[in-house]
Amino acid sequence: MIQTRDPGVVMTPERLGSLQPTRLSAARTMIDKMVTERWRITRPEFSIDGTGNGTARYHVEVSEDWSFEFVVFSTAPDPAAERTDRIIGKSWDMMGALLEGAATDEGIDQTKVELPKLYGGRAAEGTLIWCRANRSMRAFDLTVESLRAGHQPPAEILGAVCYLMRNTGLDGNGTFGTKSFAAYEADHPLRTPYHAQMLTSYLMREFSLDLAEHIAASGSDTAVPLDEGFRRFLGLGNASGLGLIMFMKNHPQMADRWLTLREEALAAARSLTVDPDDAVLAALDARLAKAAAYRAQDRMRYTYQPGGSQVSAELERIREVLAELRQEATGPGLLLDGLYTRAAAEVSTEGHEFLCSLLIDLAPINIDDLAEALTVPEATAPSPGTSIAELRALLAGEYGWAAGIDLAEAGARHYAWYKSANAEEPRRGPLADLPEVFDDMTLDLALEVQELLEATAPLDPASSVGRFLGENPRFRAAVERMLTLRGHRYHSVRANLRHEKFNPSHIIRLFNSAFYGLDKTKEDGPVGVVGVMFHGAPTPADIAAGQGRDWPFPAEPEV
């Protein structure tokens, strides 16, 4: 668990998994930027037949200096082929690439040849992202059949899926020869972390809607286009797995920065004092009402978290609390911390974090500063001159939670984390089933802290860490990580990741929901999370017109 700035709330893995998308999340900052700058998205090519085989190109004009092109290779599903969301798959319904500038014939040809190879391929120059997606067969086929018959698809069925295609991979930042994020120029439009992936996902969503509409119209005199309401409501499906646990391990400074910004924004909102009749409170109430209606229509089935109807009822209760506080206010202002505190006592963690996400909307922060704020170098800073006394104080203070974990408890040393040999995917498996020698990738802070405390106990407190590590090199990586992260609060999950009861899906959901901005995220077993990207996002026409910034919490289309 990670301790929050609020001493009254402990950020357990369960609470971390309940954090909701906010205006700081990558998907929302991406759309905000596109709408504010009025990016123009056109479709210069759509050479696809009536079954879905062919090529398409989407052009994104940002400014006179910057543009991007999204190249799509579409394939009609083969009933005999194995369709999988895993990277070891060989068959996908679409593959694509986001390239800088206008795609050349040479670049398109190279991408078409290299992209299906994945690990054996090499991206064309100027490629930012490689991607893959599969159709949601039921939702996609139903939409095509409905449009072909001259009417819109049934909202009550599509509302249980909320997408026509699901993302099965977004690869960038140097992978397969794509452009490294560190090489993005200072004025690059996608220099905020994950904006390149978000733009690609948005274009995948647009392609899925265009493809369904195109196939429906092929050979039909009665087909109708997809209603604009559906084009906003439907997003892109997404599934994530254990790779995000490895991301948390390998990018602690980014995780810390993201969570720190979120907590600072929430603290700023809670400290706001507003007049009971202020328009800010009216806007907050309206936002709560919209969110409550959205969750009331939520047709997803949840396992570990409250369902849509419960969260909707809790949001309505928060509205009642807000109304009570406004009525009870006797002074010139109402402190929003009172709403935060009252809600924490009356609703579930999920409902309370929904409120937190709405409060962050009120925080006096500048979104334009996020690109620089979120760009942090993941580097260790060796501090060989640190004394043993300082190291032990750090272990006892910031890592006291790890020192207190009972490693002799039944199930405490059950799991190990490793990379599979055939697919190079992160995995978790029982230690008893693994070879005697393997590449153990587990972030085992509890064991490291306890062994360090034991090994340094007899040493001279004034002696240096450098001397200690010279004689005990096995501790070097752990000590350098700990010294680099001194003073940071949110870099590591405060839990025993080897314990048989540790549920990775909470941390996977943290990244999917709070960091990336996916909606309707839910655990798909203990090692996976599914959700919807750009659920309710504006259309390209909306973006070009500078409209659609208030897109979260879409209502089901009434058609």
How would you describe this structure to a colleague?
The protein is of the alpha+beta class and 559 residues long. Among the domains are: 224 residues, no CATH class; 97 residues, no CATH class. It is built from 21 helices and 15 strands. A 9-stranded mixed β-sheet has the order 3-4-5-6-7-8-9-15-14, with helices on both faces. The mean pLDDT is 91.
Topology:
Elements lengths: L1 E2 L6 E2 L1 H4 L9 H12 L2 E9 L5 E8 L5 E8 L19 E7 L4 H10 L12 E9 L1 H12 L6 H4 L4 E10 L22 H23 L10 H6 L1 E6 L2 H8 L1 H19 L2 E2 L4 H18 L11 H21 L5 E2 H11 L2 H12 L9 H5 L13 H10 L2 H4 L11 E5 L6 E5 L14 H12 L8 H7 L4 H9 L20 H12 L2 E5 L5 E5 L6 H5 L15
Parallel strand pairs: 8-9
Antiparallel strand pairs: 1-2, 3-4, 4-5, 5-6, 6-7, 7-8, 9-15, 10-11, 12-13, 14-15
Helix pairs in contact: 4-6, 9-13, 10-11, 10-13, 11-12, 11-13, 12-13, 15-17
Structural classification: alpha+beta
Number of E strands: 15
Helicity level: 40-55%
The mean pLDDT is 91
* Beta-strand percent range: 15-25%
Give the count of helical stretches: 21
What would you say about this model in short?
Helix content is 40%, strand content 15%. By secondary structure, the chain is an alpha+beta fold.
